[in-house]
Write a structure and sequence with these properties.
Structural class: mainly alpha
Order of helices and strands: HHHHHHHHHHHHH
Number of helices: 13
Helix content: 55-70%
Shape: globular
Length: about 260
Amino acid sequence: MAVTNEAILGWVRVGVLLLGMAWAAWMDHKNRRVPNEHWIVWAKPAVFIWALDLMVQGADWTIYLTAAGVVAYASVSVFGRPTLKDVRAGSWMDRWFLIWYVAAAVGTVAGALRYQDVTPMDVILNQGDSLGILWWKTAAVFLVIFFIDLAWRMRLLHGGADAKALMWVTLVFPTWATVPLPFAADASSSVVALPVSIALLIWGGLAFLLIPVVMLALNLKGGHLRGLSDLKLAWHASMIPLDDVVKRHVWLLTDTMSMPNGEE
């Protein structure tokens, strides 16, 4: 791969993705939760790199504000929605967010009017005004955030951290063209290609299919599978000493009780 601005930004994106996800995974493992502050901190490099990418492509103000609208929509998951009641009550954060939303809406509408001659089919075929195609690709990220938000509200994604992570990945990699991998060009030229964050969700789901196999192998190796009745739990659970339960983040699948003689 040639050393270009796009390649440099792409590999920086990969580094940000790996570091941000590794940190989130560590916190999830230690505390069983990922605080909103984590996504706020790691959204900064994601947005900064996206802005640099748009600058390299010669984006105009409507495209920048459209991207700002995408970020504003995603920010609702961590900051909540500003209300006029809070604005009138003197909440400066709500006031700034309201100004942000209005500016983003103006930019999005202005971009739609400026590039109305460019159609979604032109974007798919990669034909027409380059800035018009860029605006459409930027605006299309709204749909990805909306899909993730809808899945979260409908409990298709049970964890709030899962939804926030997918939104964050969407900001890190808005399109396949931002992925510095050999198959990125093939995905960009495809007639239909899933968004990067949704593709990662599907791949992660497929990877989870290996967990029952791994757990069964570990239980066989540890000698925990002593009969057919143990198969009911062997594919998703393991046996550990009671003294280790309080030291580890586990979900108990069997009940315990203390006997009068101190045994459990």
